[in-house]
Amino acid sequence: MGIVVENPGVLTTIQDKGRYGYEQFGVSPSGPMDLESFQIANILVGNSRDLSALEATMLGPTLRFTQDNIIAVTGGDMMPLLDEKPLPMNQAVLVKAGSVLKLRAARTGCRTYVAFAGGLDVPEVMGSRATGVQNKVGGLEGRKLAKGDEISFLAPKTALPRMEARRTDHPMPAGKERVLRVILGPQDDAFTPQGIDTFLGQPYNVTNDFDRMGCRLDGPVIQHKVDGNIISDGMVTGAIQVPTSGLPIIMLAERQTVGGYTKIATVITADLPVIGQCRPGDTIRFQSVTVPQAHQLWREMQQRLNALDQNLNAPAPQAPAQPQAHMLGPVRHYRITVNGKVYETSIQVVSQ
Q1: Topology, domain 177-302
Q2: Which of 98, 151, 179, 261 is the right S-S partner for 241, CB 3.0 to 4.6 Å?
Q3: Which DSSP category does 186 fall into?
């Protein structure tokens, strides 16, 4: 028992940390488009950060609960309703069996996450429950949710420690312009100096050709020295391909594992949530950073998550157990001389 999908929304999938170690077989990692919002949702409901949860895109689902459980909704603001009353975002809430959760069109951001205490009970495929729509693996039969789907909870909970404090402030960025920090390469030498200047100095618009596989941008043409073709090589999430057309494509969670176009740069891990929450029509500018700077920005994101997790989910300190009277043995006194100085001490034996 868990939830029944009354309306699936536009694109709602089950995600976890992703499926790694199978890219040599052409299987993309999948996982959440906005890792930070996804992990915050899991932390709020007391889960490990990478447990299975829902990701909804642009227009969210309507879910009927058939079992009590604690949930949290994070990411883009889809103006959630619980039994037709506004449900607070970024907060753990107990939902009773029979209640209906409705996510509407995103007012801010693009993707919303719903985490359930204990996670969702779908089979693991290659070590992950994440849905890979392109590869048709994981999640619920490797597809997006459909009306009438039923998903069970793995280990639901009706109470958590510090329930009243299980909230945080994680708003989506305001406005329609975003900055994506990138590390140039690995084929930045395939572009003219003017091409690099165009890439880093001009704005690009997010097109409607934007899904979990990648995001095509429109804007000034980036000039190659020759053309945009290379011998196919490995791909990473955040890689920015520039084919001969000169317009960039950002590769995302369900990207192909190899590609034959020049890659001018890679979006740093800390900024992948930014592109994950962009919408068609938004403007993007690219900013070059160094590898040490990228590492520091990633550490800062981890520190934010660690602080929230520690605050909500760290076990309460245990007072040391006091020995019972019947466990106390005799007191023994000792005189010790160290470097000419005499110290007196006593020890009481405690029996186990």
Answers
A1: Cyclophilin (2.40.100)
A2: 261
A3: S
